[in-house]
């Protein structure tokens, strides 16, 4: 690359280098800058490398640690969100981006499912739980525990003090122990250890259930391939969201798996005064229960839970919004508007959706066929005229440009 190389040229080279020219699930890619202070922002494809590097240098001059800023290639628009891909790199990229969306709160899970997703991610990333493992910040886990679960999960369970303790433990140490140390600590706290006979039996039961489910899938493929839905695999609650639930044997397997996982969940009345250890023991137990599964099986379980969320495959933007018709009728200023705050605008191949932040609640759904026109009427504003009303979305920075680009890209993909 040279200083005059454009972002579009960089993306073309990366796509070819990664063998993603025939990607099935991906419509377009984009380069993004990711900064702890400003969040995730798309870099315009016409930008040149020199301008990107200049941005990095300007951060250093302004006292912002350059290590907190990075450029990454991400999926911009999904062409397909249900079918699996034969390309390993595409599956890998989709998996890591899905986990990143989970950490940003875009794909909301409850506390229990969040810990399960964390354990599955660890198994996908590192395989079976090693004898010694650290949840502190390392190159493999740049944000330590918070490379596995969102901070809001810790905040919701333990409050501000628990979150502060977790952040302190991640940055200052004390989150590393061996399997034997975990065994001793678990026994002293009255918790069934992952190394105990009970946990071993649970782990064995999980593997046997996975075999039954895979066998059921194989039989169905032989008899009726078209009856299959999503091929992403099974989550920890339902074992396989893509399998037809009409087979009795499969129902028993799913029910058995769910009972096993419930038994593995730590009791909430133990570990008082040790909230972070409670959380980590829970993750560790579920990680050990995945022992023996392959990387692809871990991905199937993780992605099945993620794809069940209506937020999967969406790009999210923090917004405030109001109805233009209301403003013009009332003749009020922006400051007088009773705007809807604490919202996300989700842009996907299905259309636009307004969501309540950090929840699965959808306030308004706007299919593309109901959109009459869009405009960028003023700074930080994206205007969308539907068959019923005109909505104005106020964004942070220049994200209204990115929303417009995504909107155009999805329309052109149909």
From TrEMBL:
Residues 1-414 form the FERM domain. It holds the Pfam family FERM_M. Residues 215-252 are annotated as: Disordered. InterPro entries: Actin_motor_Myosin, FERM_central, FERM_domain, PH-like_dom_sf. This is FERM domain-containing protein. It comes from Sphaeroforma arctica JP610.
């Amino acid at each position: 690359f040279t200083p005059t190389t454009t972002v579009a040229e960089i993306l073309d080279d990366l796509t070819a280098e990664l063998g993603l020219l025939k990607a099935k699930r991906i419509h377009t890619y984009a380069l993004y800058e990711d900064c702890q202070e400003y969040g995730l922002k798309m870099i315009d494809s016409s930008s040149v490398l020199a301008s990107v590097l200049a941005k990095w240098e300007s951060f250093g001059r302004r006292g912002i640690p350059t290590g907190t800023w990075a450029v990454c290639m991400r999926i911009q628009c999904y062409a397909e969100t249900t079918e699996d891909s034969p390309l390993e790199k595409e599956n890998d990229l989709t998996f890591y981006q899905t986990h990143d969306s989970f950490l940003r709160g875009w794909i909301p899970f409850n506390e229990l499912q969040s810990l399960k997703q964390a354990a599955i991610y660890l198994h996908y990333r590192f395989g079976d739980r090693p004898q010694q493992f650290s949840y502190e910040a390392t190159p493999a886990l740049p944000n330590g525990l918070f490379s596995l679960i969102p901070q809001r999960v810790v905040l919701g369970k333990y409050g501000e003090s628990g979150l502060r303790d977790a952040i302190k433990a991640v940055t200052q140490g004390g989150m590393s122990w061996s399997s034997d140390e975990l065994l001793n600590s678990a026994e002293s706290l009255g918790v069934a250890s992952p190394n105990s006979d009970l946990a071993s039996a649970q782990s064995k039961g999980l593997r046997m259930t996975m075999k039954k489910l895979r066998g059921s899938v194989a039989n169905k493929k032989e008899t009726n391939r078209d009856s299959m839905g999503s091929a992403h695999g099974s989550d920890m609650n339902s074992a396989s969201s893509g399998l037809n639930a009409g087979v009795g044997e499969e129902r028993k397997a799913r029910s058995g798996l769910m009972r096993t996982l419930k038994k593995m969940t730590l009791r909430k009345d133990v570990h008082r005064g040790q909230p972070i250890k409670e959380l980590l023991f829970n993750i560790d137990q579920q990680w050990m229960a995945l022992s023996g599964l392959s990387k692809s099986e871990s991905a199937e379980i993780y992605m099945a839970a993620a794809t069940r969320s209506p937020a999967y495959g969406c790009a999210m933007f923090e917004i405030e919004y109001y109805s233009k018709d209301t403003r013009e009728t009332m003749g009020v200023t922006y400051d007088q508007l009773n705007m809807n705050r604490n919202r996300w605008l989700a842009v996907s191949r299905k259309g636009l959706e307004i969501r309540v932040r950090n929840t699965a609640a959808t306030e308004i759904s706007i299919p593309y066929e109901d959109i009459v026109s869009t405009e960028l009427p003023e700074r930080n504003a994206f205007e969308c005229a539907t068959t019923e009303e005109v909505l104005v979305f106020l964004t942070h920075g220049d994200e209204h440009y990115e929303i417009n680009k995504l909107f155009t890209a999805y329309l052109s993909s149909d």
